[in-house]
Amino acid sequence: MPEVLPSPLRCWTGTAVAGSMSFAAYLVTRNVIINFANNPPTGNTVAMRIAITVRTLLMGICTMATAVFGMIAIGLLLLGIKSLLAPDEETASGESS
């Protein structure tokens, strides 16, 4: 049985949730980067290398979360527009009848 596109309201509610999560992840990313910039690592060479590696991983994870939630929000917004313009269209579910 083919699946019907979700309603635009449902898509835009998901857009609001994903967009707010993306914005929250952006604020966390910004604060993490500012904190790391203001507090450079100190200590011996091995400890500094480990600290730099951990900082790089944390910044990468925060940035990736921001980007993923942002892309999801954009995709849901576009899906809502598509379902608004073509409400009777059905998506292919991958099953043959």
Low-confidence residue ranges: none
Measured by DSSP, the beta-strand proportion falls in under 5%
Average pLDDT figure: 88
Spatial gap, N to C terminus: 7 Å
Question: Number of folding domains?
Answer: 1
Helix vs. strand class: mainly alpha
SSE topology string: EHHE
**Shape annotation:** elongated
DSSP E strands, number: 2
List the helices and strands and how they pair.
Layout: E1 3-4, H1 8-38, H2 45-85, E2 90-91
Antiparallel strand pairs: 1-2
How would you describe this protein?
This protein is mostly helical and 97 residues long. The chain has one domain (7-86). 74% of the residues lie in helices and 4% in strands. The chain has 2 helices and 2 strands. It has helices at 8-38, 45-85; strands at 3-4, 90-91. Strands 1-2 form a two-stranded antiparallel sheet. The longest helix has 41 residues, at 45-85. The radius of gyration is 21 Å and the shape is elongated. The chain starts with a strand and ends in a 6-residue tail after the last strand. The model has no long low-confidence stretch (mean pLDDT 88).
